[in-house]
Amino acid sequence: MNIKEHIAKRVSKELHEGDVVNLGIGIPTLVTNFIDTSKIFIHSENGILGVGKSPSKGEIDMNVVNAGKKPVTIVNGASFFDSSFSFSMIRGGHIDVSVLGVIQVSGEGLIANWAMPGKAVLGVGGAMDLLEGSKKIIVATTHTTKDGKPKIVNKLRYPQTSLRKIDMIVTELATFSFDEDGIYLKEIDKNSSLEEVVKKTGVKFRVK
Amino acid sequence: MNKQITTGQILQIFKDNQTIMVGGFGIVGSPLTLIDLLSKSEAKNLTIISNNLGEQGKGLGKLVINKQVRKGIGSYFTTNKDVVEAYNKNELEIKLLPQGTMAESIRAGGAGIGGFYVKTSTGTSLSKNSEIRNIDGIDYVFQKPLNADIALIKAKKSDKLGNLIYNKSARNFNPIMATAADIVIAEVEEIDNENYLSPEEIVTPHIFIDYVIESKGVE
């Protein structure tokens, strides 16, 4: 299992039977490999409720894709609907959990996941809507950037996606949650140590 | 009532400076035959309302290469490099909307709603120049409706009257765009001019559809 799958597997433990879950592009999409998609209902903002596992080559139907425009399958009881109805589900508070990737997340729980400074801001997709409307937000991300810099930081250096604060961060090293005093460490991965987590996290955190 | 028209008749509908809604999420549910016709028309200086401007060289991407588009209104353009390049050269204006806000603007446009307040994008750079209204303690952004001269949509099947059903997740923006434009042209995979679709399965009732054309394979 690679690092991304490892993170996705840990996220899957936070999801429960009956939950309606939206999975962002990247690591979050991998979560379908670790859950029973007939009992946890995956919503895709392009208009599907009831996304299943990735298709085998023979099963690919280019009219059944997820928000990352990748082919997916559907489960029994799935439905298709238009984009405005799909976002009514999102903004209207009908999604229990959204799992999102990030560029950065702050110690207060604010995230940046849509725009890079210095580059033309030409894409937002459904990121802001998902943050606004989902009951719970889990960030699924590698602990550091490709060049080893912390993704969990004191202050966002990239444009924030919403005023809404997230509820949980899952990385390959640790799991963090938030309470009224801000971020705290909930769990250290068995392959890591408190020392490593402290070293690779750009913000002070409590251990709880 | 036969709504089928020829490609020649469709070409006469396209004019300079029009605002055109185009269905699809990336290429999925995109009316590729109609887009191909538009790319072969003389129409330029167009405003295109669509989630994306196709992919590089595909779908609406062809119009970008032809420099037929003056402005794009949508939610995600980053994956088409030609769009980014045209934007950086000031050849293309972009209006970025959160995807849900965009969908609801089109729905409002088709439903006779003069605008709405939405929480999405409050406190971000996208709402910098928007009217903010506090309703019961929560800040909302005002958003105007979107309408167009023409909507180009893609469906799976049309019946004798022009009622439509869609193909799985290729539905996306198509049904709402069908409600929000003066002229609506549906590109469908199967035209059945002999029968009626079942009332329970119809997604877009025929009153919204002006013309129907059969989908042809487009590269």
UniProtKB/TrEMBL annotation, chain A:
Keywords linked to the UniProt accession: Transferase
The family database entries (InterPro entries) matched by this protein are listed as: 3-oxoacid_CoA-transf_B (IPR012791), CoA_trans_fam_I (IPR004165), NagB/RpiA_transferase-like (IPR037171)
Pfam families for this protein: CoA_trans
Q: Which SUPFAM superfamilies match?
A: NagB/RpiA/CoA transferase-like (SSF100950)
Would the keyword Transferase be found if you checked this record's keyword annotation?
yes
What family classification does the UniProt entry report for this protein?
Answer: Belongs to the 3-oxoacid CoA-transferase subunit B family.
Q: Which PANTHER family match?
A: KETOACID-COENZYME A TRANSFERASE (PTHR13707), SUCCINYL-COA:3-KETOACID COENZYME A TRANSFERASE SUBUNIT B-RELATED (PTHR13707:SF57)
Q: What is this protein called?
A: 3-oxoacid CoA-transferase subunit B
Q: Which organism does this sequence originate in?
A: Virgibacillus byunsanensis
- Organism lineage string: Bacteria, Bacillati, Bacillota, Bacilli, Bacillales
TrEMBL record, chain B:
Provide the species name: Virgibacillus byunsanensis
Transmembrane stretches in the record are none
Instruction: List the GO molecular function terms.
Output: transferase activity
What is the name of this protein? CoA transferase subunit A
PROSITE patterns in the record, alphabetically? COA_TRANSF_1
Xref: SMART domains = CoA_trans
Looking up Pfam families in the UniProt record yields: CoA_trans (PF01144)
Which protein family is named in the record? Belongs to the 3-oxoacid CoA-transferase subunit A family.
Kindly give the SUPFAM superfamilies that the UniProt entry links to this protein: NagB/RpiA/CoA transferase-like (SSF100950)
Xref: PANTHER family: ACETATE COA-TRANSFERASE SUBUNIT ALPHA, KETOACID-COENZYME A TRANSFERASE
**Keywords noted in UniProt:** Transferase
